[in-house]
Amino acid sequence: MLNTVVLSAILIISAATIGLIYRVIKGPTTPDRVVALDAIGINLVAIVALISIALNTSAFVEVILLIGILAFIGTVAFSKYLEKGVIIENERDR
Amino acid sequence: MSLLHLAIISPFLLAILVPIAYKLFRQIHTGWFVLPLPILLFSYFISYLSITSDQQSVTKSFSWIPALGIDFAAKVDGLGLLFALLISGIGSLVVLYSIYYLDKNKEQLNTFYVYLLLFMGAMLGVVLSDNLIVLYTFWEFTSFSSFLLIGYWYHREKSRYGAQKSMIITVFGGLSMLGGIILLYLMTGTFSISEIIAGSDEIFSHSLFVPALLCFLIGAFTKSAQFPFHIWLPDAMEAPTPVSAYLHSATMVKAGIYLVARMSPVFAEHSLWLWLIAGFGITTLFWGSFSAVKQTDLKAILAFSTVSQLGMIMSLLGIGAAALHFETVDDSYFTVATTAAVFHLINHATFKGSLFMVAGIVDHETGTRDIRKLGGLMNFMPITFTLAVIGTFSMAGLPPFNGFLSKEMFFTGMVRVLEMDIFNLDTWGFLFPVLAWVASVFTFIYSMILVFKTFTGKFQPEQLEKKPHEAPIGMLISPIILASLVIIIGFFPNIIANTLISPAQAAIMPVEGYVYDTHIYFWHGFTPELFMTLGVITLGILLFVTLPKWRRVYDFLPEKLALNRFYDSGLSGIQHVAHKFTKWYMNGSIRNYLVYIFTFFIITLLSVLFLKGAFKFDASNVSAIRFSEIVLALVIAIGAITIMFVKSRLTSIILLGAVGYTVALFFVLFRAPDLALTQLVIETISVALFLLCFYHLPQIKDEERMPFKATNAVISIGVGLVITLIAFSAHSNKLFDSISQYYIDNTYEKAAGKNMVNVILVDFRGFDTMFEITVLAIAALGIFGMIKLRLGGGKKNENK
Which parts pass through the membrane (chain A) (predicted)? Predict the structure, then answer.
């Protein structure tokens, strides 16, 4: 029972990811792509969590946390880039 | 190390001291410090005469590289001693001559005598070595020092050209000879010439015998300026005249003759040996004498004459090999050719040396060597004229000089070819006496040109740079000694017959128990040879007198056949073709090089896979495919394929990131948490770096899709296919179990860890990790350096 549920959940999320990938490819603007990427990151968290349930292991908890952090940092960096044109501002340029 | 070894290397030792003497005693001509050594060597080698006259030899060995069978074995036998006497004897005379020829204030005497001594030592080493590798070492030393001597006046373009040409040709031959030496070593297992000769019967039928023979002959022909390799010798005339007299008439060009004579006992059994040596020798004889007639430069005439005379000696050595095939009662019937070869070798060294010195004197005292400007010098230079007459008449083969005797014997040898019935000589053999006779006519003509155009006829003072006068006595001593030798040998040939010629002949054709007893007669009776000589003289005089009428023959004939043109166009052609080829395949485009690399990769691996039948597909050991894996694989495939077709670079970067993250998911699926963690972080950073690069790219107006190229598509599909096939095949061919069970068992037991990946990284295989860390450190430092150090940029180097 559990396996069926997990598997169908993975399927649904994968379908959602494919939809998001379509958005990443198609565009039409860069913010669209960034938002889609952020959503893909969250979907990855879900997929990893589901896979660890399916594999019956707790070894991937760190991966889940890491994806969360990376997705956040990445999205923030992208947003800053889109807004200011630079990611790291170098005020103290000698 | 014995005294003999010391004698061989003494010129090298003195060469070290010469520059010191030159610096310390500037007011004394450096040549005086050099002169005693060749005289000393000459008298030392004279002392061996008593040994070799009894057909004995002396061998002294000195260990050099015993593990490879290379010993500095010095052997003095008849042949080696003859050459050693020529080298040291003429060497002394040349040094004496050069003292007066070269000005001590204008010339760099230290380098001259260093090169000359190097050459002398190398030449002694060549003729006295009994070990082939040692012989080769000295052989290359002669090429090298000859290169230095020809290019002595290195500020002249023609000197450099001549030096380069002689270097290329003689080193080509030298390397070929090295090949022959190695082949001989493969056949016999020794480098020692004596041992090879002793065991020469066994190698006759060996499959490497003929290649070895050819290799040795190329070496000998290039060194001895045989057709078609003779072209370097006339250009070597840019050297100072003492050098021409020494190297290019008496010693170095005879190294090839020496080699042929020395290797005769090994190779002469084979018909190729006779045919090639005699054939090329007689061709060289004819071509050299024919070309000499048209030259207008004294030294050029002498150079072609040297070529021609070397061809004569060579052909005699070839014909002499036939004697081995006749086991008749009258052994000496066919050996006369070898006797003539050795005899003419001595004669040629004497008269050609003196003639070169005469040419040098004429050049020195009038300022030109062009026979069109010279003439009527007889009254100004009576002694030089006398010397020239003796030398040229001997060269032309007139009595009573020594050239007459050897030419008579040469004709005898050639006429006797007619009676040989081996190796098809009965059908083509008649060419030998005919060609020999025609060549002798030309020899006569150029000899006469040499002496009469220079010393008789109209005196043209306005053409000359200096007012001609007789040379200083010091300059005349050497040619006088050589010319008197010409006369002495001419009148009393038998004083050298049994001391020098017979022992040398015994070394060339060692026959058990047979003692060569050479006797040279002035008068043979009314033999064909005598009439041939008479014919040469008659026709020669006739043609010489009518020379202006038929000289036009040369205007169109030899220019077309000149081998120099082949050499020059060949050399520049090789350069041109190589340049074109390099330009064609090395066009600087990295795409191109990648095409080569990948094509090579596909061709080699695919051909090995299928030619060797290595491909195998075995699905028995494959685990079941899960649905999630298919989905992930599809995602990766779609991502990777889309990268190729998208327009914008930004999209490509994002897609690449997507592929990287999916790989991380694969790691999750295949239960590799550490890999997944690292992959995620690294992928994020590298995508960020890509974006950084993207941001700094120059603005392109229209970002275009990657252009499609069929070759690229084929190659990329090929690479993918090859890798896939190899992966299938490797998986299907697993031979042994994995060693991972050890790690599973011992990760906690021995290394106190539960995370196996990390234990392997830092404990079981920690060494790799250390260097991975180093790689990262280097990369970081490199990036830092590249950003900070901008040499040639606006900022100055900040490190300073």
Answer: 6-25, 34-54, 60-82
CA angle B720, B724, B729 (to 5 degrees): 150
pLDDT, residue B28, reads 84
> B670 to chain A: nearest residue by CA?
A55
Residue A2 has pLDDT above 90, yes or no: no
Question: What pLDDT, on a 0 to 100 scale, did the predictor assign at position B136?
Answer: 93
Alpha-carbon distance A13 to nearest alpha carbon in chain B (angstroms): 11
Contact residues for A31 (Cβ-Cβ < 8 A; gap 6+) = A82
Written as one letter, the residue type at A34 is V
CA distances from B61 to B1, B7, B72, B188, B539 (A): 8, 14, 6, 20, 54
Cβ within 8 Å of residue A60, ≥6 positions away: A48, A49, A51, A52, B668, B673, B676
Q: How far apart are CA B57 and CA B753, in angstroms?
A: 81
When pLDDT is averaged across residues B548-568 and rounded to a whole number, the result is 71
Burial B275-305 (b: 16+ CB within 10 A, else e): bbbbbbbbbbbbbbbbbbbbbebbbbbbbbb
* Residue B651 to residue A27, Cβ atoms within 8 A: yes
Residue B539 tokens read as 């026709």
- Are residues B276 and B222 in contact, defined by beta-carbon separation less than 8 angstroms? no
Structure-token pair, residue A85: 């044109």
C-beta of residue A66 within 8 angstroms of C-beta of residue B677: yes
Q: Which residue of B has its CA nearest to A71?
A: B684
CA distance A59 to chain B (A): 6
Q: What does the pLDDT look like over B122-149, one tens digit per residue?
A: 999 999 988 899 999 999 999 999 999 9
Q: What is the pLDDT of residue B167?
A: 92
pLDDT digits (tens, 9 = 90+) for B664-701: 889 988 888 889 889 988 988 898 888 778 777 776 65
Task: Indicate the length of chain A as a whole number.
Answer: 94
Kindly state the helix (H) or strand (E) to which residue B243 belongs, with its residue range: helix B241-245
Which residues of chain B have a CB within 8 Å of the CB of A57?
A: 671
Alpha-helical (H) ranges within B102-154 are 109-128, 132-150
Least confident of B150-159, B181-190, B323-332, B507-516: B323-332
What is the 3-state secondary structure of B411-422? HHHHHHHCCCCC
B677 touches chain A (CB under 8 A): yes
Distance CA B577, CA B55 (A): 55
Q: What is the mean pLDDT of residues B261-285?
A: 86
Q: Of B631, B651, B671, which has the smallest distance from its Cβ to A55's Cβ?
A: B671
Query: In this predicted complex, what is the ipTM?
Result: 0.72
B668 and A60 in contact by Cβ < 8 A?
Answer: yes
Taking the Cβ of residue A8 and every Cβ of chain B, the question of whether any pair is shorter than 8 Å is answered with no
What is the DSSP secondary structure assignment for residue B794, as one 8-state letter? S
Say what the pTM is. 0.80
> Hey, where are the domains in chain A?
1-84
From residue A83, give the alpha-carbon distance in Å to each of A31, B552, B701: 10, 92, 22
Nearest to B374 by CA among B440, B460, B260: B460
Label residues B543-582 b or e (16+ Cβ within 10 Å = b).
bbeeeeeeeeeeeeeeeeeebeeebeeeeeeeeeeeeeee
The dihedrals phi and psi of B59, each to the nearest 5 degrees, come to: -125, 130
B660 CB near a chain A CB, below 8 Å? Answer: no
User: Strand locations in B471-602, DSSP E?
Assistant: none
Token duo for residue B129: 């070595």
Least confident among A31-35, B352-356, B371-375, B438-442 = B371-375
What b/e readout covers B195-210, taking b as 16+ CB neighbours within 10 angstroms?
bbbeebeebeeeeebe
More confident residue, A52 or B367: A52
DSSP characters for A10-63? HHHHHHHHHHHHHHHHH-SSHHHHHHHHHHHHHHHHHHHHHHHHHHT-STTHHH
DSSP structure class, residue B192: B
Percentage of chain A beyond pLDDT 90 is: 4
